[in-house]
From TrEMBL:
The keyword rRNA-binding does not apply. PROSITE patterns: ABC_TRANSPORTER_2. Keywords: ATP-binding, Nucleotide-binding, Transport. GO terms for molecular function: ATP binding; ATP hydrolysis activity; ATPase-coupled transmembrane transporter activity. This is ABC transporter ATP-binding protein. Signal peptide: none annotated. It comes from Dyella japonica A8. One of its GO terms (cellular component) is ATP-binding cassette (ABC) transporter complex. Residues 14-258 form the ABC transporter domain.
């Protein structure tokens, strides 16, 4: 590892300092601060409209924060405030509903291309994209890892929700990213697929990929995830250790209804009281 890589490996995955994001004339994230260290697997929980996807798009550079009044940098990812999006995508694998929508609405996009184009931070292969045998080999490994090899040859538009999700996971893993940013990754998966997927994530977490999981569902928070962030109305409601944050009062405040929480070994569940 050279000095540059060393600095990247030890830098916080995310350091957001008082960032605000506007969409149209609405303030969607309001003076939001959050730090996630390298290796600190984290779940971000919030009700519909709390600002979770906006936060994901802030991290992936699809949205930008307003210029902060304090003069400091509002946001750093892997210790840097400036990134070429393609370099960032090499370090941060992303699975999100908007990516799935884009990939599955392109009628001619095939599974192999959906994975290989990730090497170029693109959604399709272009004439100037030179796919090497090593890339093809790595794509095959990532498809295997995501349980999606049997889908090769299919168009993305023809896949079921769960099948398309597996391909997107392969696409996210193809770079061996340092971190995975997963926005509602289990939405639309059946019980068995969800369990397989979560077990797969646990393996990645144990082997050094930092997980950043955005979800509505307490049940999806894996034992490896020890930090939980609660979001409400575009603001950080609480950030802390899982047992301190996954409590009835705090989840009731997050979802605006009385919630009771149960612990089952290393997992938690929550229901409306
Ligand atoms: N382009 C936009 N213009 C105005 N408001 C927007 C725009 N995009 C998002 N919003 C609003 O920002 C708020 C946060 O949206 P966001 O998608 O980040 O929430 P979320 O927590 O991901 O919700 P969900 O769980 O329903 O996916 C919502 O109230 C939404 O209506």
């Amino acid at each position: 590892m050279n000095v540059h890589q060393d600095a990247l490996a030890s830098a916080p995955l995310l350091d957001i300092d008082d960032a605000s994001v506007m969409r149209g004339d609405r303030l969607i994230l309001d003076r939001f601060s959050l730090r996630i260290d390298a290796g600190q697997h984290t779940a971000i929980l919030g009700a519909n409209g709390a600002g979770k996807s906006t936060l994901v798009r802030l991290i992936t550079r699809e949205h930008y924060p307003l210029a902060p009044g304090h003069g400091r940098t509002a946001m750093r990812v892997f210790g840097r405030d400036r990134w070429h999006v393609s370099d960032l995508r090499g370090l941060l694998g992303i699975v999100s509903p908007s990516l799935q929508h884009d990939c599955t609405s392109d009628a001619t996009l095939e599974v192999a291309e959906a994975v290989l184009s990730s090497f170029f931070a693109a959604q399709r292969l272009g004439l100037d994209h030179r796919v090497t045998p090593a890339m093809r080999e790595r794509a095959a490994e990532a498809l295997e890892q995501a349980g999606a090899t049997h889908l090769l040859g299919r168009s993305m538009a023809s896949l079921s929700t769960g099948e398309a999700r597996r391909v997107l996971i392969a696409r996210a893993l193809v770079h061996r990213p340092r971190a995975l940013l997963l926005d509602e990754p289990c939405a639309g998966l059946d019980m068995a697929s969800r369990r397989r997927f979560l077990e797969n994530l646990r393996g990645l977490a144990r082997h050094g990929t930092t997980l950043l999981l955005v979800t509505h569902h307490v049940e999806e928070i894996l034992p490896e995830i020890q930090q939980v962030v609660l979001l409400r109305d575009g603001r950080l409601l609480r950030q802390g250790a899982k047992p301190d944050v996954l409590t009835g009062p705090l989840l009731s405040a997050t979802f605006g209804m009385p919630v009771c929480v149960e612990r089952h070994g290393d997992y938690f569940s929550a229901a409306i009281a």
